[in-house]
Amino acid sequence: MKGLYAVTDSVLLADRLLPSVRAALSGGAMVVQYRDKSGSAVKRRAEAESLLALCREFRRPLLINDDVELALAIGADGVHLGRGDGSLRRARERLGNSAIIGATCHDSLSYAEEAVASGASYLAFGAIHASTTKPGAATASLTTLYEARRYGLPVVAIGGISTDNAAPVIAAGADCVAVVSGLWQAADIAACAREFSRLFCA
Q: Domain tally for the chain?
């Protein structure tokens, strides 16, 4: 798991979810996370199923944000769980050994260690920079990314990451950069995705 990790946003992509994700995938996005905090279960199920078909077309994994049951129902590749969004161990039991299960660690190496023991597949740290998606989020340091390498799992960085500031984050040890606004607000999403992908080859 290495490269651009595209996280959807129900506001930014309100009427253009599928074409935008297609553009990101065509530009080289390696992972897609479906994140929608709206209350409509029917809408979320339909969108998640459509995204899964799209990700299958590009042979890229689709992860569901904070909803193990939705991931299980549609056969998604896994889930991403925030620290207060359910048990990693329980998610592993429900989804099986092959599922990708991501854990939000913020800036805590001690929580990362717990997540590893609970069956996480990767560790996510952030916000790396001030984020418009989560403006009140605490920041995580580049040192934390570097130190997290010792756990032997992929490290994902998130929060305020753009093509202009991603290089030091990658150099510090991020296997993936998870991007929301910096991708979906681009004038050319595919070109933006290609630029992120290029940074991993530099």
A: 1
Q: Which two tokens stand for residue 202?
A: 């530099």
Question: 187: buried, middle or exposed (CB in 10 Å: 19+, 13-18, 0-12)?
Answer: exposed
> Which tokens in the block code for residue 5?
């990790």
The range of the structural domain enclosing residue 183 comes to 3-199
Environment class of residue 177 by beta-carbon count within 10 Å: exposed (0-12), middle (13-18) or buried (19+)?
Answer: buried
Q: CA-to-CA distance for 10 and 80, rounded, in angstroms?
A: 16
**CATH (domain of 28):** 3.20.20.70
Indicate the pTM of the whole model. Answer: 0.96
Q: How many helices (H) and strands (E) does the chain have?
A: 9, 8
As given in the structure block, the two tokens for residue 156 are 């994902």
3-state helix, strand, coil in the chain (%, to 5): 40, 20, 40
pLDDT in tens, the chain (202 residues): 999 999 999 999 999 999 999 999 999 999 999 999 887 999 999 999 999 999 999 999 999 999 999 999 999 999 999 988 789 999 999 999 999 999 999 999 999 999 999 999 999 999 999 877 666 677 899 999 999 999 999 999 999 999 999 999 999 999 999 999 999 999 999 999 999 999 999 7
